[in-house]
Design brief:
There is one protein chain. The protein is of the alpha+beta class and 183 residues long. It has a single domain, classed as tt1808, chain A (Alpha-Beta Complex), CATH 3.90.1570.10. Helix content is 20%, strand content 26%.
Length: 183
């Protein structure tokens, strides 16, 4: 009897244990037990990330930290690096341990040419502790709003002049794409 090929699903502990043996010129993340090499950000992707990070600088620094493309541990065994994560302030700046889903107030993923554009969003919502997440869909110029009440699909798709926001920082879809994608 032939044994079928089975890919290995890594636990977070296994991923961290082998991290130093991975190619140091690449960035990696663990999503649902699979290690992915992350492709470099294209200018539009980097511009959207920078736009949001800049706009969120006005948040209460005693309450929130803005993390850009840093590890967020979510259950059961994922360590993605969201483009933006607004997490609860901690006086060690998460130097002792990575933030987890219960520390996150908002997660933002910017999508341009992702392999499975909604896989990470579903993982964030399955964690059950992240109250809201946004997926910024560059090719379709829309914003997807996600909440744990529906782990499979965005609860709302925003286009054009539709507004969205977080703790007093508001945006429209046109503003995001009009500012960053002027050409």
């Amino acid at each position: 009897m032939a044994i079928a090929y089975q890919p290995h699903r890594f636990s977070r502990a296994e991923y961290y244990a082998i991290a130093d043996s991975l190619d140091p010129s690449l960035r990696y993340e663990l999503v649902n037990g699979t290690i992915y090499a992350m492709s470099p950000a294209k200018p539009a992707h980097a511009g959207v990330v920078t736009f949001f990070a800049n706009r969120f600088r006005g948040l209460d620094a005693a309450k929130y930290l803005i993390r850009m493309q840093e590890t967020l541990e979510i259950e059961p065994d994922s360590s993605p690096q969201p483009d933006i994560a607004i997490v609860a302030f901690r006086d060690d700046y998460y130097g002792a341990s990575h933030p987890n889903g219960s520390d996150a107030a908002l997660v933002i993923e910017v999508g341009d040419t992702e392999r499975k554009p909604r896989e990470k969003m579903r993982d964030y919502m399955r964690d059950g502790r992240i109250p809201t997440a946004w997926r910024i869909d560059i090719p379709n110029r829309r914003v997807e709003l996600w909440e744990p009440s529906d782990v499979e699909h965005p609860i709302q798709l925003l286009h054009g002049s539709d507004a969205f926001g977080f703790v007093g920082v508001s945006f429209t879809v046109d503003e995001v794409f009009g500012t960053v994608l002027k050409r």
